[in-house]
Amino acid sequence: MLRFLTGGESHGPCLTAIIEGLPAGLPLETENINYYLKKRQGGYGRGERMKIESDQVEITSGVRGGLTLGSPLTLVIKNRDWANWEEYMRAEPRGEDTKRTVKRPRPGHADLAGGIKYRQYDLRNILERASARETAARVAVGAVCLSLLSVLKIEAVSHVTRIGSAECGSVPTWEKIKEFAPLSPVYCADRQAEEQMIKEIETAREAGDTIGGIFEVRLRGVPVGLGSHVHWDRRLDGSLAQALMSIPAIKGVEVGAGFRAAFEPGSKIHDEIFYSPEKGYYRLTNSAGGIEGGISNGEDIVLRAVMKPIPTLKKPLQSVDIETKKSREASFERSDVCAVPAASVVGLAAAAFVVARCILEKFNSDHLEELREAVERYREYARRF
Alpha helix (H) ranges present in the chain? Predict the structure, then answer.
């Protein structure tokens, strides 16, 4: 089974991820991982922290000579800001120091609920791990999975479709997303919408506010048969939705037509099935988003996620001091105005991990060549079914 764990706090010395279950023989270079780490740090609306950090991954186990060994892969991303926080965040015992203690929880953040759950009266002990800084480690994991999927002829892209009230005017093609989204300050494939999105971010910035939006992830070339209908926790759409919902600030996920399916008759929503000897089974529409009955059907997998505005505001909302119980403004931590573009990169990584895990569940292989051969044989079987 492919699985991973991450460790590390926002202002700790580093973030660490350990991936287990990768086949041996996968070509892997830090440059490819660093590309996605840089994309995660970018996007219009990011805050001051991104000027401090310049995320670079170090592979400390599981790779030799540029190829995976089949043993656990360890990825380390150092926090450059650790130098400014070592006195407050070091693991060793230290004297009482309240300079960066947090007592006023932010509405919309894990501060208060986490403090109550873990009996932490300095809420920094919650916010450090609850911070979206952790997603850098997940992006590194996802970049490894994207390398695996690429070898298996599975492509993946993501792009921003909405920020505030500004949204794409039409559904962009796969080719347009690949060409324009990486060059956009907001990772949007629609030039007109991009301008409006930037204005929305600037309006929020000037008001001392934050703003959310929607991003989309697409995967192409996913073989039929990933996931299963036989148990609730084996459904592919359920696993993908869970992965996206685990990203900080994500409050909703759609697959394919999503909520639009509630407003259309079945005759307009369900994708008719066709067959040709060259293509095998195919559809002309994709309202299902590439998944039927919890199983991939061979069409593009299409996912959308809603990100709420970040809960750290320069003009803080009303809160309560957990020590005095008096009404106070919420604490302020250095933050972004909008992180939807960055979240689209995290969403891409999260989806890539789920699909890679499902691939390895179905085609369990110890070496990349075994895996590639098994997937190709299966694709031919599905085409002729």
Answer: 30-41, 49-52, 82-89, 111-118, 124-130, 135-151, 174-180, 191-206, 236-245, 266-269, 340-362, 368-384
Q: Token digits for 333?
A: 């931590």
**Looking at this protein, which amino acid is placed at residue 329?**
E
Closest CA to 137 of 355, 353, 362, 317: 353
Phi/psi for 231 (5° steps) reads -145, 150
DSSP per residue, 276-288: ETTTEEEES--TT
Residue 333: per-residue pLDDT: 79
Answer whether 72's CB lies under 8 Å from 19's CB.
yes
Which residue stretches of 235-367 are H helix? 236-245, 266-269, 340-362
Q: Which CATH number fits domain 3-384: 3.10.20.30, 3.60.150.10, 3.50.50.60, 3.40.350.10?
A: 3.60.150.10
Question: 98-121 pLDDT, tens per residue?
Answer: 778 999 999 999 999 999 999 999
How confident is the model over 162-219, as pLDDT tens digits?
999 999 988 899 999 999 999 999 999 999 999 999 999 999 999 999 999 999 999 9
As given in the structure block, the two tokens for residue 95 are 């004297």
Q: Specify whether the backbone of 298 is left (phi greater than 0), alpha (psi in -120 to 50) or beta.
A: left
Cα angle, residue 108 at apex, residues 337 and 323 outer, rounded to 5° = 115
DSSP one-letter string for 194-223: HHHHHHHHHHHHHTT----EEEEEEEESPP
CB 325 within 8 A of CB 269: no
Q: In angstroms, rounded to a whole number, what is the distance separating the alpha carbons of residues 180 and 40?
A: 17
Closest among 139, 130, 23, 1 to 75, alpha carbons compared: 139
Distance (Å, rounded) from C-alpha 155 to C-alpha 151? 9
The domains of the chain are located at 3-384
Query: How many angstroms separate the CA atoms of 44 and 292, rounded?
Result: 36
